[in-house]
Amino acid sequence: MLNKISRYTIILLIVVVSALYLPDFFSMLFDKKVNTPRLNYSAVIDEFVYTQHHGMGQTERKDIQGNSYSEREYYKLLPFTYYANLDKWGLLPAEIDGFELSSKSIRRNSQFFRIQPKDISSPFVPLYIMFEAEPDYAQLIIPDDVFRLDNTIEFLDPVSNSVLEEKSHKFQEAMLSTGFSFPAKIVAANQTNRKSFDEGYFIKDANNKVFQLKMIKDEPVCVETGIDPNLGIRQIFIKENMRKEFYGWLLTDDNEVYLITYDNYKLQQIPTVPDDPKYSYIADEMTIYVYTYPVNKHIQISGNGFKQMIVFDNDFNKIAEHVETWTPYKKRPASIVKSFLFPFELSTYDPMKWVKVQMDCFWWEGLAGIAVSLLVLVLFSRKRPWFDYVLVLFTGVFGLIGVLLIKPED
Amino acid sequence: MLKAILYKEWIKLRWAVIMIAGLTVLSLAYTIGMISYYVEFQGAFSNWMFVIGKSLLLKNIVFVKVLPLITGLVFALIQFVPEMNNKRMRLSYHLPISEKKLLISSTGFGYMFLLIEIVFLFFGLWLVISMTYPAEIVHKVLMTTIPWFLGGSAMYFMASFIILEPTWVYRIIYAVAAYGLIELNFRASTYDQYQRLWVLILIVAVMPFTIMFAGHRFRRGSK
């Protein structure tokens, strides 16, 4: 009996290894790279344009009406993207929609951000640094302590690895006095000194209220933002920009994206649902790009098999939208053959950067592979313990490899 | 009988155990040295920033990562290669003790030393890291080491199993499978990156069962 258990243990381990590696090898060998278009919107001709690479350095530049452009012509259509090159070539138009163009004015009035799945919740060490928001110097000065913020706020001194009681107490009092309830659920900031000023931390407290915490002249400044606690905030992103239009942006559980504006923290929703809701933004699997230009705003939702672009004026009135699609991985021949061949797949890949063993079942397609595996076993290798068949029934070709390699011993 | 078998395993293992114990202490000393070197060289605050933002500690504790792997392999080689030479294992299988008991006690005895090393490394690291770093970092680093320890355990069981297997064809098959199962524990690039650690624990927990099969095949004289 123990010998049988022992044999099936080995077979199961072989099943695990082959389910981890074989489907992956299969995709690597047979799946072809799809060249996806790079979409953009030209404020010069008010039309969507795109570039597409065709290998061997061949690049196609077109608008969606089908007109082709040379490289320089294409750059001229997109002065807000290629202003540096256009400026150098002396091809930068004088103005668009009443906005005077120069490299400087475009740079000053443009802002860009994106939310990738890995930005939302990936592995990190929950320790933070607090900048002096009004330093005596021209740039932000890196402090010499770090802090933790969960059930309490505690500043730590790296030299002695101990808590700075006085500072911690001061900050805790300041937070409590504005109505903050510990523990903090989300702590968000742009933790770099490569920025021109500091807006500190945006913190979601135990009651889902959002507070801003800064340090000015060594004193804590804590403000309740008044952001709706029922919004279901999933993550907050802060990025200081000289334009001072918004502190940052936040993502909700319903895949909504809001800008936190400088107008008394008022939220401005970014539309993430296009005319065809099938191309709506889903935070766990897609990336959203938001481009703010002097004359308009572009939103691009990049998912598996499509790129959806929506263009707005500066007051978020929709100007145009367009979707480019291609065959997504799941519908490509290699993937389809794979799902017929293998009943399931094990992988440790996770878009949020975790290493997580997970199983992806191919359900009814997988049954075909199981049937063939069983048939092979019945036809070519009879007189087996009944459990071999059961194993192949559940694990298909992986089990077949296992039971054929490791022969039964009586 | 059992006592005699364990004594025999001890005789085989003793020098390796002493060597590995020395290396374990040395690897913790290396970690202490590297940490204090970096703290001195970078300054305490920026060292913390490198440790938090750039996973610097993974570099300083690299011996904790590889030592259980090496130990697992060395113990398996020392315990079972002499037995498989000229099929000496045959003699052991003729002892008045069941082959299962014999294999369980031999591998259990070897694994016990590996486990002691793992426990020592874990708590030693806990002590070493908490001297310089706060609880958040200590927690993340200790969680990071768990898959490495599982990898070391997997190495011991799979290596023993491969050596005890009498035929080369099966050995090659097992080696391929072992590579995949061990590699699975070394996929992290930053601290505490694994979720669902129980899957990995389960995989390692069933590995001792495989060894019976090798013993059984040896007894049957499989070629």
What does this protein structure show overall?
The complex is a heterodimer of chains A (410) and B (223). Chain A has helices at residues 2-30, 71-77, 79-89, 103-108, 117-120, 165-177, 333-341, 363-380, 386-405; strands spanning 38-42, 47-53, 59-63, 95-96, 99-100, 111-115, 146-149, 153-157, 162-163, 186-188, 201-204, 210-216, 219-224, 233-238, 246-252, 257-261, 267-270, 287-292, 297-303, 306-312, 318-325, 344-347, 355-356, 358-361. Chain A is an alpha+beta fold. Chain A is flat and about 85 Å long. The mean pLDDT of chain A is 92. By secondary structure, chain B is mainly alpha-helical. Chain B has one domain. Chain B has helices at residues 2-42, 44-53, 57-60, 62-84, 89-93, 99-132, 135-164, 168-183, 197-220, and one strand at 194-195. Chain A binds chain B through residues 2-3, 5-7, 9-10, 12-14, 16-17, 20-21, 123, 125-127, 129, 142-146, 148, 156, 158-159, 161, 348, 350, 353-358, 405-406, 409, and chain B through 44-45, 47-49, 51-52, 100, 131-134, 136-137, 140, 170, 173-174, 176-177, 180-181, 184, 187-188, 190-196, 199-200, 203, 206-207, 209-213, 216-217, 220, 222.
Pair of chains with the largest interface and how many residues each contributes: A-B, 40 and 46 residues
Q: What count of domains describes the coordinates of chain A?
A: 3
How many distinct helices of chain B?
Answer: 9
Overall 3D shape of chain A: flat
Q: Spans of chain B of 5+ residues with little confidence (pLDDT < 50)?
A: none
- Strand tally of chain B is 1
Distance between the termini of chain A: 10 Å
